[in-house]
Amino acid sequence: MEKIALITDSACDIDMETLKENNIYLLPFRIIYKSEEFMDRIEISPQEVYNRLSTEIPSTSLPNIQLIEDTLTEIEDKGYTHVIAIMISSGLSGTYNSMRLMCENHPKLTCEIFDSKTLTMGEGSLVLSAAEMIQKGLSFNEIAEALPNLRNKVHVYFTLETLEYLRKGGRIGKVAGTIGDLLNIKPIIHVGDDGIYHSYAKARGKNQAMSKILSILKDYLDKVKCSVWILNGGAPEEGRKFMENVKGLNNIVNLFSGDIGPALGVHTGPGLIGLIIKEEE
User: Fold this and answer.
1) Do 76 and 209 sit in the same domain of this protein?
2) Which PROSITE patterns is this protein grouped with (predicted)?
3) 19 and 129 in one domain?
4) pLDDT tens digit string along 112-170?
């Protein structure tokens, strides 16, 4: 009889309580400062990372290889026969490849390493869907076959307070970033089907950016029922304000709020507002 373990990484932005409730194994990213290192969400919270950005911008690194090995060994020792691992987009991180290679050391486990091609609660929603399917008793093959279709129904958009952190990280040209800041341009970024960031739109000022994101959501809701996540990165008040604008919209099946973790946040800085949409049947 199949016994299926579910694994993800901390880029999924599922809170610790929900992970425990659903028996999901977490592989935390490493948040690395000059003098110290932390395991994401286990040893440092997203808010603590945002609070420290003004003094030092940390780097993020893949989950520890030994931790991946120990997790797989624990899973095997507990009698699991199958593993479904849903990872951050391979276009944004090497975590997917690391997991794939480590699973080769465990031939007794039948593993499905799934490239979510997204992150934050886009990835997280896929993990929670997989957990629900496991709880309902679906087979390993049924879950593995369902994931690509579910992935096509998940959409991630976000807007930034400043282009400074993207510029520091080498993700945009210095001149474009400087001019953008001077003109108060707020980009709206979309995670594409290829699993990398794409510029979706630009807005003059944060209010216009938030209106544009609301408009994106309404376009989806006009066509289909959706579950919606409103996430913030170091901007809880803006997140709450946007949540109020979303409440009461037709066709929202579930509405959630939460924090965007460092996997995305250290590259974008505080002031991030994210919209994650999952099309429902």
Assistant:
1) no
2) DEGV (PS51482)
3) yes
4) 999 999 999 999 999 999 999 999 999 999 999 999 999 999 999 999 887 777 766 65
3-class secondary structure, 8: strand
Please name the residues in contact with 72: beta carbons below 8 A apart, sequence gap of 6 or more: 83, 102, 103, 105, 106, 109
pLDDT averaged over the chain?
92
**Where does residue 124 rank: exposed (0-12), middle (13-18), buried (19+ CB within 10 A)?**
buried
CA dist., res. 217 & res. 250, Å (int): 11
Q: Range of 176's domain? A: 154-279
Domain shared by 108 and 240, yes or no: no
The DSSP string of 251-276 is TEEEEEEEE--HHHHHHH-S-EEEEE
Q: What count of residues does the chain have?
A: 281
- The pLDDT tens digits of the residues spanning 40-55 come to 999 998 889 999 988 9
